[in-house]
Design a protein that fits this description.
Immunoglobulin-like; 186 residues; 4-stranded antiparallel beta sheet; alpha+beta; 5-stranded mixed beta sheet; globular; single chain
């Protein structure tokens, strides 16, 4: 009887955590879509789209709106992320971990959302971030949801789930859901 009660409490605790995480992700997406932007005043949408053509390499700084991204490394081939037995996730294919540093170069706070970031293969297929895996890989939350004040920066890992036979060729990084983004060749 005690084991059943413990298992039931564990189940509720795990699902409560996932519900809170899901709610935060939804709020973050809405806030990013409504309050985001590229941080430049008077820029036309053509100019914002032109920023996507900017290409950087691993280790080089690349700017989009209020953020300066530096991809430190990308590591693929992981099948599971998370250290806590209740907070682990298994990949459908393989996890690719994008290690980044993000600095706010703007004049006001901006929120970093892992869900705004993408990996692309050589054929241009887009892979979105796995927010739950990102949370489990780094429970402190630095890379999946973080308000960054001007001049401050965060380091973190964003997790993507790619098929086992795919290799990421580039990352497309955004300061908000509506920004033009910047491309980083991996």
């Amino acid at each position: 009887m005690a084991k059943q009660k413990e298992a039931k409490q564990s189940w509720f605790k795990r699902h409560k955590v996932l519900t809170v995480i899901l709610a935060l992700v939804v709020i973050g997406i809405l806030a990013s879509a409504l309050g985001g932007g590229d941080g430049s005043k008077g820029k036309s949408s053509n100019t914002a789209k032109a920023d996507t053509a900017t290409v950087a390499k691993v280790g080089e700084a690349a700017r989009d709106g209020r953020f300066e991204f530096t991809v430190k490394s990308v590591e693929c081939g992981k099948t599971v992320v998370g250290d806590n037995p209740y907070l682990t996730k298994t990949a459908q294919g393989q996890y690719c971990l994008l290690n980044v540093s993000v600095k706010n170069i703007g004049d006001k706070a901006q929120t970093l959302f892992s869900s705004n970031q993408k990996l692309l293969n050589a054929q241009g297929q887009e892979y979105s971030a796995d927010d739950t895996a990102t949370i489990y890989a780094a429970p402190s939350g630095a890379s999946w949801l973080n308000d960054i004040n001007p001049g401050n920066s965060v380091d973190g890992t964003i997790v993507f789930d790619l098929p086992k036979d795919q290799t990421p060729a580039s990352a497309e990084l955004h300061d908000s859901a509506l920004s033009g983004g910047v491309k980083v060749n991996l």
